[in-house]
């Protein structure tokens, strides 16, 4: 009985850590997308527009994957439309 409670507690801790990882991924991807969206293509002195577009697509894909892992299907579907 004692072993089962410890196992259950460990499972809950692992789920909590996974959730935190997915939420952190969402936060970073959202920040990247917002940052990229604030810069106009004319202001760019760094990476070329193709690289920027690639970063945006990759960030959206990470967001979609994280939303799916968190079972937030509505938001994942909305990101797919972008």
UniProtKB/TrEMBL annotation:
InterPro entries: TPR-like_helical_dom_sf. It comes from the Eukaryota. Gene3D superfamilies: Tetratricopeptide repeat domain (1.25.40.10). This is Probable helicase with zinc finger domain-like. It comes from Odobenus rosmarus divergens. The lineage of its organism: Eukaryota, Metazoa, Chordata, Craniata, Vertebrata.
